[in-house]
Every structure is written in C-alpha cells, then in structure tokens.
Design brief:
Layout (H helix, E strand, L loop, with lengths): L7 H6 L2 E5 L10 H14 L3 E4 L9 H5 L5 E4 L2 E2 L5 H14 L4 E6 L9 H9 L1 H14 L9 E3 L4 H10 L2 E2 L6 H11 L4 E2 L2 E6 L3 H16 L2 H9 L13 H7 E4 L1 H13 L5 E5 L10 H11 L3
Helix pairs in contact: 4-6, 8-12, 12-13
C-alpha cells in the first residue's frame, strides 16, 4: 500500500482499522456476538476498532474485554450528550482495566441533531468554542483525560489546529485523500491523522453506487459535511440527488479488496497514519459485515 515508514501512531493504531456502528449495540442479546467479532478482528490483524454512531464510553467496554492488544476508540462521541467529568471518570476506569487501549474520540455533532434551540444555535455559530470548553472540562476533571488519550473529529482548519494543540490528533470523517494531504499540513508531522474511508465491496458498479448513495443521503442533509465538501472544491451539483459520481468516487472505495488496498494507499501516501475502513452494506445498523472484514484483512493486512 505504501512504502512510508510507520509513525509512532501507526505503531499504536496499526495502518488499518475498522469503523462500525453495529459494534456500538447496547443490546444484551448481542454482546456475545460483538465480543466474538472483536476477538476475531484482533486475530485477523486489524490495529484498531472505531465505534460509530455517537457512542458513549461504555460501548467500548465489551470490545476491550474481549481483546488484549487492539486499540478501541469512540468515533465520534458527541460532547452534547455526555458530561465531561463523567466521561473522564469512565475513561480512567476503562484504561486502568484494559492497559490504556481506549482512545476517546470527540465531536461537536450537528446542529440538525440538537434537541433544543440553544444547543442548535451554539452548534451553528460556535462549534470551536464549544469543543474548547469541553476539553477544559476534561482537563479539570478529578481524573483528567490526557491529550494523548483523546482525538477530535476535525474537518476545518481551526478544529484541526485544536486537535493538534490539545489532543492526540484528528479523526476526519467523509474526507478525501486531498483533504488528508491538507490536514497533514495543518497538523504537522507529529499529530495523529486517522481518516475514515467508506468501502462498498462488489463486482456490480451500478449496485455499489446505489448502496453508497442510499447511505450518503443522511450526510448530505447535514450542513457541516456540505460545507466541508464545498471547501474541498465540490459544487452544489455534486451534493444533489444522493451525491454525484465524482463525490462518491472521492469518499468511497469501490470494487474488490485489491481496489480498496489501492485507495487506502492513496490516503496513507497523502499523510494519514491510519485509515479506518467503514464497510457499507444495505444494513449497517445491526449486521456485522464479517465476510467483508475477512476479505479486506486477507488483502490489506500482513499475513
């Protein structure tokens, strides 16, 4: 994929990880399934597991309990849904119990998802200030969260700078290899850069694009992602009707596992330390895509 020397972050997180909302399930009936999947994914050689869907810290516990080496992170926990002091306490407990393998991924969420007018207005006008205050709260907690154990969902320059200055680094979501290169310039050489990349495996391009568009529609309705894509050089026409082919090709990897390997390489060559792959299927909320994860491991991970 790349000839770049591994960074200290690559040694901690691996070059390849997995991002999944299904791993966040709180259903007791699914705990065994999730734990068994986590144990298998560690054995397959993935470096990190990223829990999607605005998870609380508690969602990481089953994954950590079922594994012994892999890094587990939230991607991304909304700062509006959890008190900083409570999060810091939970973070300390998890890392004490599991050898420091948990990373707290934080985000300011979306104005469209806010439950009250005051929060919605704060998200629209001052997301940067809101994140700074939350980090202050983590620092001031009785059991603080060290900067090296937290990372931010950063897209724009100011949030990237904050992730460099007050966290381990950045976990950009729905970005391109070109954005990754620009983010590396902002972050400098030392900060973590771990973008997410969506994957649709299959040999039918038309069906793959339909699956991709169906999933992308929810994000096309969110102002922060729309603004991010416009900053990247996409136009309003790229953001209509589920996204243009140009947009899909930039934020997804399509085809077989070897094609995904090539796309991952473009992100690593652009400056990423680690790439978090999100396998997109027709049912992401509850079905663990184990066959796809196994196929990707065979093609992308050292044997």
């Amino acid at each position: 994929m790349t000839t770049n020397e591994p960074s200290r972050h690559t040694r901690r997180f691996g070059r390849i990880g997995l991002w999944s909302t299904a791993l966040a399930s709180a259903s007791p009936s699914r705990r065994t399934e999730i734990e068994e999947a986590a144990a298998e994914l560690e054995e397959l050689g993935y470096g990190s597991l990223w829990i999607g869907g605005s998870p609380g810290v508690d969602r990481a516990e089953p994954l950590l309990a079922a594994t012994s080496r892999i890094t587990v992170g939230t991607s991304i926990m909304s700062i509006w849904q959890h008190r900083a002091e409570d999060v810091a306490t939970q973070h300390a407990r998890l890392n004490s119990a599991h050898g420091g393998r948990f990373v707290l991924g934080l985000g300011v969420s979306h104005a469209e998802a806010a439950q009250d007018d005051a929060t919605r207005e704060e998200l629209r006008r001052r997301p940067y200030s809101a994140m700074r205050r939350y980090l202050d709260g983590l620092d001031a907690a009785p059991q603080p969260v060290p900067p090296q154990e937290r990372a931010l969902a950063a897209l724009g320059p100011r949030m990237l700078e904050l992730s460099r200055d007050r966290a381990l680094g950045a976990l950009p979501y729905l970005v391109t290899a070109e954005h990754t290169a620009r983010a590396r310039e902002v972050l400098g050489a030392d900060a973590l850069l771990a973008p997410e990349l969506k994957v649709v495996l299959g040999s039918d391009p038309e069906r793959a694009r339909a699956t991709a568009r169906d999933y992308l529609r929810r994000y096309l309705a969110l102002a922060n992602y729309r603004n991010s894509w416009l900053r990247m050089g996409f136009g309003e026409d790229d953001l209509a009707d589920g996204g243009s082919d140009r947009l899909l090709d930039a934020v997804y990897a399509f085809g077989d596992a070897d094609a995904v390997r090539e796309r991952v390489g473009s992100f690593l060559d652009a400056g990423a330390d680690h790439v978090a792959l999100q396998v997109v299927t027709d049912d992401l909320s509850s079905v663990l895509p184990l066959p796809q994860w196994r196929a990707l491991a065979e093609a992308l991970l050292p044997g």
